[in-house]
């Protein structure tokens, strides 16, 4: 007597294996393509961010250079003023014309500062 097949007919394992392999290959390719797209987008975003940072850094450097130039210019002007003031005071101190001249308080103070600086 023949056995009755209970719900299972002859199953083609080769066809099932081939289909499963094909599905796995397609799934792998889909994941690899998605990863490739992710990396491409990530690198593009990183490059854009670097460009933005470089522009901001260049702008900050330009501001720093401008401030440095302004500082050096102001420093040179102050040094010229200080030299002129010292020269004028030095000329006043070197010439002894104050023996018979009355000076006000600010003049006496300038002379005393010039003497103390020596």
Task: Describe the protein in words.
The chain has helices spanning 13-94, 105-117. The chain has one domain (13-117). The protein is 81% helix and 0% strand. The chain is mainly alpha-helical.
Q: What are the main properties of this structure?
A:
rod-shaped; 81% helix; 2 helices; 118 residues
How would the blueprint of this fold be written?
Layout (H helix, E strand, L loop, with lengths): L12 H82 L10 H13 L1
Helix pairs in contact: 1-2
Instruction: Give the number of domains.
Output: 1
| Mean pLDDT rating | 83
Judged by helices, strands and strand pairing, the structural class is: mainly alpha
The largest β sheet comes out as:
none
Shape: rod-shaped
Number of strands: 0
Order of helices and strands: HH
Based on CA atoms alone, the radius of gyration comes out at 45 Å
First-last Cα distance: 133 Å
Contiguous uncertain segments of 5+ residues: none
Helix content: over 70%
Question: How many separate helices?
Answer: 2
Strand content: under 5%
């Amino acid at each position: 007597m023949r056995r009755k097949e209970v719900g299972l007919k002859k199953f083609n394992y080769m066809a099932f294996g081939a289909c499963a392999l094909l599905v796995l290959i397609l799934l792998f390719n889909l994941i690899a393509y998605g990863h490739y797209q992710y990396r491409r987008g990530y690198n593009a975003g990183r490059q854009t961010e670097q460009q933005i940072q470089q522009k901001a850094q260049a702008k900050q450097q330009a501001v720093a250079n401008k401030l440095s130039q302004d500082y050096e210019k102001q420093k040179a002007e102050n040094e010229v003023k200080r030299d002129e003031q010292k020269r004028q005071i030095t000329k006043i101190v070197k010439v002894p014309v104050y023996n018979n001249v009355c000076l006000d308080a600010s003049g006496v103070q300038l002379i005393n500062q010039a003497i103390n600086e020596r």
